[in-house]
Design goal:
Elements lengths: L18 H47 L1 H20 L1
């Protein structure tokens, strides 16, 4: 993880802080925040994909164990969707 950066840490105490300096440091801060957010989003997306893959695998196993029940559930869901769409 990146080291914390203090505002104006590269300047001496006698140098005045300019608007350009503040803009530059704000830009660096925004870039750092964007990178951290992208990393966290990427990790969350990977975890969600893995969890979805596990659920699909579990569903496939359940369908193979009980094909008649799975067909009945699918027909029931299709019937309900048909009722909703015709109204």
């Amino acid at each position: 993880m990146a080291q914390p950066h203090r505002l104006g840490s590269e300047r001496s105490a006698q140098d005045p802080v300019t608007v350009d300096d503040l803009k530059s440091e704000l830009s660096q801060l925004a870039s750092t925040v964007q990178k951290l957010a992208a990393d966290q989003f990427g990790e969350a997306a990977e975890a969600a994909q893995q969890q979805a893959a596990n659920k699909v695998s579990d569903l496939e196993v359940a369908i193979r164990k009980n094909p008649t029940q799975a067909a009945a559930v699918a027909a029931g869901i299709g019937f309900l969707i048909g009722l909703v769409l015709t109204r």
